[in-house]
Design goal:
single chain; mainly alpha; three-stranded antiparallel β-sheet; two-stranded antiparallel ribbon; 5 strands; 60% helix; 3% strand
């Protein structure tokens, strides 16, 4: 048997880490509970994380602030691995608790499949343990009751596998010839041709794929001249090129892949990036009311006037903050509810993504996150005057009298504080954005400028530097720091300034996609419904617009 697979669910790996030094009886109790849970899982159903932890440990963690659900199909292989790893620290005999352990070869014979198939069945819930046999050998084995339980649940799969026969020479020749015809007529990759032929000849996809690979390794004129599956580097390269507006057909030619292969690789990369953010959120009771989304996300406060204005000049920001009006409590509550609901919806959709996610599902998640970014920017502006007032109260002299570099550093730090406040504030507990921002800013300034003599200490910390002139104080692209996903889902500010120079329909598509007119960002389907374009055409126009924006940005900095 191969080594145990790496964990894909972080919570299960954390649980194993907590049990590393637990006594044997505790490890065995959790091992048995995990094995029982494997048999109860429905691979298509979502399970709350606290339910999974409770079923294994008997302890229900407090996850009210960040509820997480996991699909059974993703949980099953990690639970099988957990059982196997926990058993390695125990002394299990071949007749442990009246059960009878059998070897890998015996399982293969019982199920009428190959040993490799048995190894693959672990992902489907076939449980194995480290067992000590009577002859002193210690190896991975399977208890008969676990094998029987697995066989009962996988009858159709095992029946199909049991009827497998090898492809004879004549049938192989037919398949090879058909593969050549598919390659010439449709330019399919080896994997795509194998999928097609597997369906036609009622054979396993892997069987056909390996047959074609063997043929091409030995043939003077191989059928498929591409370089095999895409490597992680090629996937990242394809995604970067796609982000920059390069057509997938051009990427496919450059990497010697088919266009569908490039599309799948790009979507997989998009999915991986989304899995890496999995946004946390504050769960409000209103989320679980009927039609919550249609009510919370329909408010004009969260669908219009979402343009945060210019955040690249610290001096301009400070001047705007001084003129800002008090925050309306209802507006603040509406924005916070919508912001957290969008993150909640995105997190659930990310958790439901399969191995090969579709473009439409990814587009909806990415659009929700872009929308959430616009709402957070609006919230940040509401909180910014409070942060500026707190900074002013903690300085020995007016903020604009400090050197430019220190003003910029304080503003950037304030934006970071505001970002953290927005992520943690819970309006359901009576928390208000202005008050919490003011308190947190004061605490942050006290931390970075510890003082026993008050403002005199702050004076000593101010470097000897010339005061800034009346010119702007650049902050860089401060807004992109508010949300992690802005790095790849947002439109850079140096590109935004050229959108007005685009021709139609590029200007309209880019504006709607990123919500540059102050309205909510839109999916391809939404843009298509509002224009004379199809969803596929929307994507192509968007990519052409991105290419043109990059060209205009390069021209603007070229002397």
């Amino acid at each position: 048997m191969p080594k145990a697979a790496r964990f894909k669910v972080a919570a299960i790996e954390d649980l194993l880490r907590q049990l590393e030094y637990a006594p044997p009886e505790t490890r065995q109790r959790h091992m048995d509970a995990a094995e029982t849970l494997i048999g109860d899982l429905d691979p298509t159903q979502n399970y709350p994380l606290d339910f999974i932890i409770f079923r294994i440990t008997g302890y229900r963690p407090d996850t009210r602030d960040e509820p997480v659900t996991l699909v059974g199909q993703a949980l099953r292989p990690d639970l099988v691995t957990l059982v196997q790893v926990l058993s390695d620290g125990l002394t299990l005999t071949a007749d442990h608790e009246g059960r009878n352990a059998i070897t890998l070869e015996q399982v293969a014979a019982r199920l009428n499949v190959s040993t490799k198939s048995v190894q693959r069945y672990r992902k489907l819930g076939l449980v194995s343990h480290h067992v000590s046999f009577a002859d002193g050998a210690r190896k991975l084995a399977f208890f008969e009751d676990a094998v029987d339980r697995f066989a009962q649940g996988q009858q159709s799969r095992l029946a199909k596998a049991g009827t497998f026969t090898r492809v004879n020479g004549e049938a192989e020749t037919v398949i090879i010839n058909e593969a050549r015809q598919l390659r010439n007529a449709e330019h399919l990759t080896l994997n795509e041709a194998a999928l097609r032929l597997a369906s036609t000849h009622a054979r396993a996809h892997e069987t056909i794929r390996q047959m074609l690979r063997r043929h091409d390794r030995k043939a003077r004129e191989p059928i498929f001249t591409d370089r095999g599956p895409m490597t992680p580097r090629e996937t990242r390269l394809a995604y970067r090129a796609w982000q920059r507006g390069i057509d997938p057909a051009d990427i496919a030619r450059r990497l010697r892949k088919s266009k569908p292969t490039i599309h799948r690789a790009i979507n997989r990369r998009r999915s991986d990036l989304l899995q890496g953010v999995a946004p946390d959120h504050v769960a409000l009771p209103t989320f679980y009311l009927p039609d919550a989304a249609s009510v919370i996300l329909a408010s004009p406060m969260v669908t219009r006037d979402l343009d945060p204005g210019e955040w690249r000049d610290a001096k301009l920001l400070i001047e705007r903050a001084r003129l800002a009006e008090p925050v309306d409590e209802d507006a603040e509550a509406a924005l916070l509810a919508a912001y957290n609901l969008l993150k909640h919806r995105a997190a659930e959709a990310i958790g439901a993504l399969g191995a090969w996610p579709g473009s439409e599902a990814l587009d909806e998640i990415e659009t929700d996150l872009r929308w959430a970014s616009r709402l957070k920017a609006k919230l940040a502006w509401l909180a910014f005057p409070s942060a500026i007032r707190s900074i002013g109260q903690n300085l020995p002299r007016p903020l604009l009298e400090l050197p430019s570099d220190q003003i910029a550093a304080l503003i950037i730090r304030a934006i970071g504080v505001i970002s953290d406040v927005i992520e943690s504030i819970d309006p359901g507990r009576g928390q208000r954005l202005e008050r919490l921002t003011s308190f947190t800013t004061d605490r942050e300034l006290a931390r970075i400028q510890p003082s026993s003599t008050g403002r005199q200490s702050a004076v000593r910390k101010i470097k000897a530097a010339a005061k800034h002139s009346g010119a702007a104080i650049p902050l860089g692209d401060a807004m992109r720091r508010l949300c992690r996903w802005n790095e790849w889902l947002g439109l850079r500010s140096d590109l935004q300034v050229h959108v007005a120079s685009l021709e139609e329909p590029m200007r309209e598509v880019i504006t709607r996609r990123f919500g540059l007119d102050g309205t909510r960002p839109q999916t391809s389907e939404m843009i298509a419904a509002a224009t004379a374009l199809t969803p596929i055409r929307v994507v192509r126009v968007e990519h052409r617009g991105i290419r043109e924006l990059r060209r205009l940005a390069r021209s603007a900095i070229t002397p």
